[in-house]
Amino acid sequence: MLSTQSITDPSYNYALSQVFSPTLVKRIDDDVHEASIKYLLQFSGLYPVDAEWELSRGLGIAYQYLRRNYRCEYVYKNEIANQLLLRFHNDNSATLLREVASDRSIADIVIVNGHTVAYEIKTELDNFDRLAGQLSSYQCLYDCLYIVTHAGAVDTIRSITDTTVGIIVLDADSQLETVRQAVSTAHLFNPHKAVLTLRQSELVAAYEKWVGKMPKMGTALVYEFCHEWYLSLSTEDAHIVFAEALKSRRPAAHQFSLVMDCDPSIRMLFLGRDLSKKYCITAREKLGIFA
Fold it and tell me: Are residues 166 and 99 in the same domain?
């Protein structure tokens, strides 16, 4: 039973949404942080005070509450991970990236599997003040672009975007429904923008794949050398290098195994970041996940 006294306080909704912040990932083995989550869930009435505490169960309860009552950005991201990535690519064949530096903006999610697809999330809690600039930034990098939003925003988004931008709605049952298919804008790809998203290690790997062993030079000169080489490529080849580099950021086998084995409510926590084997072992222990 929910505690009417606490759960109707709007501040609890925000506090519950923060349970799924990056802090949880960083402090997965921190007993003090776990105790604060336990206290919040018990005090709000979501987790029975007399029930044995399990972190995994607590996170699942918090997520289901947010899914029904306060659809914050984490809910949207997690549903994209479950419904658009893992439902079709449970073999780690596609790569999901989060918060990718993209020209003058940060793409919420990018999924790479042959094509690069960016997803910009606009929840019930967001406005559209920066949308035009965000779309411009993404369309010079990614093949396709979708806005993932709620039903009440569809008409507004249709009126302020062109028909190349796809629209996906997270419906009342938290199912993702495509209401407008994206049209490829790969012809807008701009290598001068794309190179700023790539890591030095990715540029070096691309050079050695396409050309051969890197010439000897001081460490400080490597990025500039690779940067200039990348911009010397044709637009088509630069596009291939860009997509291959992003796809190479897929999680290691031990991390992907954790993603698939954990409760669906927390999968997004472990995607889009590099997690060590030691970390994944610790996370499994804390969450009671045994292979």
Answer: yes
Look up tokens 């495509």; give the residue. 178
CA-CA distance, 131 to 124, in Å (whole number)? 15
- Is 173 in a helix, a strand, or coil? coil
Whole-number average pLDDT of the chain: 94
What CATH number is given to the structural domain containing 116? 3.40.1350
Strand, coil or helix: 18: helix
The domain in which residue 242 lies consists of 189-247
List C-alpha distances in Å: 175 to 2, 170, 250.
25, 5, 25
Burial letters 173-185, b for 16+ CB under 10 A, else e: ebebeeebebeeb
Residue 42: CA atoms inside 13 Å, Cβ hemisphere, count? 14
Chain length of the chain: 291
pLDDT in tens, 102-140: 999 999 999 999 899 999 999 998 999 999 999 999 999
Report which of 190, 180, 191 is spatially closest to residue 227, judged by C-alpha positions: 191
DSSP 238-272: HHHHHHHHHHTTPPPHHHHHHHHHS-GGGGGGGSS
- Give the pLDDT score at 5: 41
- Give the pair of three-digit tokens for residue 227: 């940067």
